[in-house]
Known about the structure:
The complex is a heterodimer of chains A (about 150) and B (about 130). By secondary structure, chain A is mainly alpha-helical. In chain A, about 80% of the residues lie in helices and about 0% in strands. Chain A has one domain. Chain B has two domains: about 70 residues, Winged helix-like DNA-binding domain superfamily/Winged helix DNA-binding domain (Arc Repressor Mutant, subunit A, Orthogonal Bundle); about 40 residues. With about 130 residues, chain B is an alpha+beta fold. Strand 1 of chain A pairs antiparallel with strand 1 of chain B, so a sheet runs across the interface.
Amino acid sequence: MTEDPTPAEALAAIRRSQHDVQRKVAAGSWRYDIGYSAVCAMMVGAQALDMPLNTLGAAVGVLLLTVLFRREANRLGVSISSMSPRRARWVAIGLGLALVPLMVLAILLNHFAAPGVMLALGAAALMAAAFIVVLIGSRLWLRVYRRETGQGE
Amino acid sequence: MSVPQFDAVIHAPGRLQICGILSATDEAEFATLREAIAVSDSVLSKHLKQLEDAGYIRLRKQASAGRQRTWAGFTPAGRRAFAAHVAELQRLAGLVEPRASARDSPARNPPPSGEGDHAKHGGGGEGGR
């Protein structure tokens, strides 16, 4: 690039930089998303356990998500909290909200189902649902993020 | 939508690329920025210092695996300034583009009749700032 780039050259340089970041973020993102979804599923499933195991499950889940996030940031050399840009943030918030009913169902399951096979099957079904919801949400977030950051803003 | 505003601090080539990367992230690591814009540590430090002095980025040091890493991220003011700068670049590019295509159109710029200097004058779409 020249020392005093024209507007077109400058915009092209910005787009190139943004595409480089997008490529980095997309590389290996399936592995990250699967790990992230598994931890979220574990947090949902833990709510079907008695106190204090459910609280412990949630705390361990939050810790694992933090470790996963930091490791991914160190691997990529960029950190993206999923709360930006604007539209991608709403996907992340929607994803978090989608987990709430699944957690409530797991708590209700613990209250109303007798310990045994039914409770285990119910918890497994909720975990599977959470895994799929989070995985779809994560891929959707990536698509929205790529579209939003590709606009040169 | 940002109000278009040209920003000389952001516009320098290295800093433009740094801002491009930061606009797509929350934070970027020093080594990642250095590789992306292909400059030495000292040149990158200088660019980051200028952006930090302008209040556009914040630098954060973090110990990781026994070594210290520096992370840079936009401040809210920096994000706004970058968005305004991009809006201004888009506005300027929009001003240059119609003029260039009008010059290039056959109606305005008939095929050269032998001197061969028309293509040079008609094809240059840059330099419109």
